[in-house]
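I am writing to request your help with a piece of structural work I have in hand. What I wish to show you is a protein chain and, alongside it, a tokenised description of its three-dimensional fold. Could you please explain, in whatever detail you think fit, how the structure tokens follow from the sequence? You will find the record immediately after this paragraph.
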Amino acid sequence: MSNISNLLKENYDLKNELESMVMRVKENEAKHNGFKVIQFSMLLSDNLDEISNKPIKYIEEIFDIERAVLFIRKDALAVAQNFESKGSRVQIVNNEAFSYTFLDDDVRSGTDKSVIHKDFQLMPHDSDYSYVLVPITDNGRIVAALGFYSSDKNRFTKEYNFDFVEEFALIASIALKKLDNAFLLEMQANTDYLTGLPNKFIFDLTGNNSFREYKENGRSFTFFMFDLNNYKYINDELGHLAGDEILKLIARNMRNCIGDYDILGRFGGDEFYLFTETTDKKELNTLIDNLIKAVEETTFIEDFNIKFGFCAGAVIVKEGEFNSFEDIVRLADDRLYKAKNMIKRENGLSLESKVMGIDE
């Protein structure tokens, strides 16, 4: 009788073991298929927000961990320069983070923060997790890192199989390179090659979008057209190379005066444009005073006697009736040339800056 009981028990144990093995196989197969989804979603992401909301989020769900984070080295990728971390899955960090973290081995894992340099940690409260950090490289240079964090202190230990982490790091490297190249191409298409400011394409795009928002939602804005004073004289007297350097200096100084959401661009030649959401006349006059001061105080080391300045036409788009953005540009141009005809001159050179359109 005992033999029968033993046989039944052995069969029962074997059945449980087989069922457990089948479950593990199914789980591994599901994770394998899930990981393929993660890889494809990483490669197909068009921006860093998509990477945060899709592949990195999927890793947390499929591998049942508390947090997955893509750390991007601030100055390593152009696509990261203006990215605002809206969540915790993609974070832009200073270069020091990488030099502190990846001192010797490429892959760092552990159950406490001892694997991180004692004076720095990539994520707050690292010591609360078991984690693994793996670098993402481009041409031998570390540009980013992946961090996987689990509240299970034994989840990522020295015995853990890091194959999926390293494989995903390779996929992430390809995806980030693709995003960076696309971003650089877009920047080249949208940026004036000389000054680094938005170009005429952005002028048309921003103008038409702003006008549509104004018509459909009543969203007001102010538009400026600028023309530098004495630029022909500068080119004739100092040469076009000096003229280019002066354009870059003035563009930089003007850009330092505007708000984060204002768009200052180069229309062409010595003409610039500005879109701002500011429509209050007092605030606009303060902005104009700052721009005039920035331009007039520009100095050129080869000739300290050059008098810099500009004329501008402004249009506050909140009360007037306009049928198109072109109507706004036409009015700004009219006011610009009115300003040019009113400024003081001496020996053919303009002696002051003037803006028309704010107080009329």
Summary: The radius of gyration is 30 Å. Confidence is low (pLDDT under 50) at residues 103-107, 111-120. The chain has two domains: 2-188, 200-356. The domain at 2-188 is CATH 3.30.450.40 (Beta-Lactamase).
